[in-house]
């Protein structure tokens, strides 16, 4: 669909830094969904029994939308 986010989808599990300036890492699932009008980014931490981030829920999901014009103005059917 023109408004959906399923044109291209990718997921990966990775160990990655979570906070700027902090060397501690989290085990996370990272997802990207790309559509014609937006991209959706997901970061979800895998639960750990003993960790610096214990008790903190890390479940980030953000949609970034955009608009564009196509072609040159003044050309085509009126």
UniProtKB/TrEMBL annotation:
Subcellular location(s) per record: Membrane
Biological process terms in GO annotation: protein transport
Pfam families linked: DuoxA
GO CC terms: endoplasmic reticulum membrane
Signal peptide from the UniProt entry: none
InterPro entries in the record: Dual_oxidase_maturation_fac
Keyword Lipid metabolism: no
Record's bilayer topology term: Multi-pass membrane protein
Keywords from the named record: Glycoprotein, Membrane, Transmembrane, Transmembrane helix
Top-level division of the source organism's lineage: Eukaryota
Family the UniProt entry places it in: Belongs to the DUOXA family.
Record's protein name: Uncharacterized protein
């Amino acid at each position: 669909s023109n408004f959906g986010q399923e044109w291209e989808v990718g997921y990966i599990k990775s160990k990655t830094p979570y906070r700027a300036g902090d060397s501690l890492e989290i085990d996370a699932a990272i997802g990207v969904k790309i559509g014609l009008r937006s991209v959706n980014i997901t970061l979800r931490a895998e639960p750990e029994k003993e960790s610096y981030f214990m008790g903190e829920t890390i479940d980030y999901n953000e949609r970034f939308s955009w608009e564009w014009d196509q072609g040159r103005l003044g050309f085509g059917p009126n």
